[in-house]
Every structure is written in C-alpha cells, then in structure tokens.
Amino acid sequence: MSVCIIYHSETGNTRTVAERLAAAIKGDLVAVRDLAGYSKMGMYLKGAPRAMRGELAAIEPATINVAGYEVVVVGTPVWAGNPTPAVNAAFKALVGIEGKPAVVFCTSRGMPGKTLERLQAMLAGRGADARGVVGFTVRDVRTGEGMDALVDLVRRSEKERVVQ
C-alpha cells in the first residue's frame, strides 16, 4: 500500500498517532513544520487566534507532492476548535491530491470542535475523495485507543481504490 501521512505536531501527540499509523501500514511520513516556531505560550496566544481565523502558516515543506501515493492521510492538533495554521497551509501545498482517497485525524484534549468537518471540507475543496475521520483525545494517544479504527479506515480506502 502506498500511503502518505502528512501531519503537524507541536507537543508530540499528533506525531505519535502519525508514527503509529506509519508503522502499522508502512506509510511515508511528511512532518509539516510551522516556521513561526511557537513556544508553548505562543501556541495559545498567537497560534490559536490564527487557527480560529483559518489563517495559513509559512511551512516546510512548502510543496507536498502526493501524486505517487494511493491514499493520503492528514493529521492535526486542535487549536481553538480548528486545524492549525500549518495544516491549513499544508492543504494548499498539496500537489496531486485530486481524486485520491483521503483520511483525516485530529488530536485534542477532548474538544475537537469542528476540526474534523473542516478537514473533510478542505479535502473536498482540493478534489480529494474524503473517506472518513478519526478523533483522538490525549488519553487515546497514551493508551493507543482508536488506532485500530484509523488503520482499518486507511486500509479500506486503499482496497476500495484498487477495486475502482
């Protein structure tokens, strides 16, 4: 299976889920770095308001080419009920996403807000075939709960693409 897992993580929770998924399905990881370099306090004071406004961050990598992959997965932490500015920018940076099955996940302290719905809308806006969403709390990340659902969703998306 050829899966690209794109994620942004500041505290490590989203990275943990992405790495577990990559290990389970042998996917490739693309870590998106917000060039703002937030401190912990900066995430809340500067990053959260930017997330609420749907702003885009300056990111590395600036372009994310997924043309050679069968399935794309995007993961984000939740900031003020929204995807991070880095993930907003990652969607704009995607090349070759049109028509591909895609799955999204988020990590939060338990209040994902409209993050998953917004991620699905962003996928649809880029012409991707949004197949599903999975939300993780910090507790889920610690215990590994929910990983089976995410792995199954990605595997099912890949199998359905092969059949088409």
Order of helices and strands: EHEEHEEEEHEEHEHH
Rg over alpha carbons: 14 Å
Strand content: 25-35%
How many helical stretches?
6
CATH architecture: 3-Layer(aba) Sandwich
Considering the protein shown, what is the CATH homologous superfamily?
Answer: Flavodoxin domain
The CATH topology assignment is: Rossmann fold
User: Into how many domains do the coordinates divide?
Assistant: 1
Task: Tell me what the structure shows.
- Strand 9, helix 4 (115-125) and strand 10 (129-137) form a beta-alpha-beta unit.
- 46% of the residues are buried.
- It is built from 6 helices and 10 strands.
- The protein is of the alpha/beta class and 164 residues long.
- The model has no long low-confidence stretch (mean pLDDT 92).
- The two termini are 15 Å apart.
- Strands 1, 2, 6, 7, 9 and 10 form a 6-stranded mixed β-sheet that branches. Strands 3-4 form a two-stranded antiparallel ribbon.
- Helices cover 42% and strands 27% of the residues.
- The longest helix has 17 residues, at 147-163.
- The chain has one domain (3-159): Rossmann fold (3-Layer(aba) Sandwich), CATH 3.40.50.360.
